[in-house]
Automatic annotation (TrEMBL):
Residues 11-157 form the UBC core domain. Belongs to the ubiquitin-conjugating enzyme family. The active site is at C95. GO terms for molecular function: ATP binding; ubiquitin conjugating enzyme activity. PROSITE patterns: UBC_1, UBC_2. Residues 223-236 have a biased composition (Basic residues). Its EC number is 2.3.2.23. This is E2 ubiquitin-conjugating enzyme. Accepts ubiquitin from the E1 complex and catalyzes its covalent attachment to other proteins. Catalyzes 'Lys-11'-linked polyubiquitination. Acts as an essential factor of the anaphase promoting complex/cyclosome (APC/C), a cell cycle-regulated ubiquitin ligase that controls progression through mitosis. Acts by specifically elongating 'Lys-11'-linked polyubiquitin chains initiated by the E2 enzyme UBE2C/UBCH10 on APC/C substrates, enhancing the degradation of APC/C substrates by the proteasome and promoting mitotic exit. Residues 155-236 are annotated as: Disordered. It comes from Salarias fasciatus (Jewelled blenny). The gene is ube2s. GO terms for biological process: anaphase-promoting complex-dependent catabolic process; cell division; exit from mitosis. Keywords: ATP-binding, Cell cycle, Cell division, Nucleotide-binding, Transferase, Ubl conjugation pathway. Gene3D superfamilies: Ubiquitin Conjugating Enzyme (3.10.110.10).
Amino acid sequence: MNSNVENLPPHVLRLVYKEVSALAADPPEGIKIYPSEEDITELHTAIEGPEGTPFAGGIFRMRLVLGKDFPAVPPKGYFLTKIFHPNVGHKGEICVNVLKRDWKAELGLRHVLLTIKCLLIHPNPESALNEEAGRLLLEDYAEYESRARLLTEIHAMGGPGGTSGAPQDPNDGPQPKKHAGDPTKRAGPSAAAVPAALGNGASGASTTTSNSSNSSSTNNVAGKKKADKKRALRRL
């Protein structure tokens, strides 16, 4: 969705910046704020699933988009984390009265975020965007709870079988492959091979020393025989 920064009057941008800064410094309980320095008209958040609901333990990423007529017109809300909820459409769009007929410019973004969190506690099947979830909520709550819990575990939780709904750390996930010249990746003798090589070297040195000793002994014997032969000739 395109930015509306250029479409909003300067005084509205100042008000939005002030409110977003206040939200980031003092967010509502269970909600984290991730303001964008590049686009103040799009606010990313992460909402903790309330206890006592099928969403407990999950982290649900969401964004609010401020249109060119804000604050005369309410912002639009979207869940970025998949969720099984009557008031959340298949594309993440959120249906709640505060984002429609009950909107007032003086309500502010904090009120919107708190209302959406409350929607996780008290779904409204009468204005369902997800008709199946709305029907199950009314007719078979156990099945609704089971389905909602399953999606929470799959999409909104970290650990085995799930991916955290919180914005990912840039260091998470697959990392770029190291260059072939990386000294840590260069081939070399293994730890086991080094002692073996040293052992072979020591053995080789020992063999060489032994051979030299034998050769020296042989030379001494030959020299002694020559000397004895010379003395015998002199006697003749």
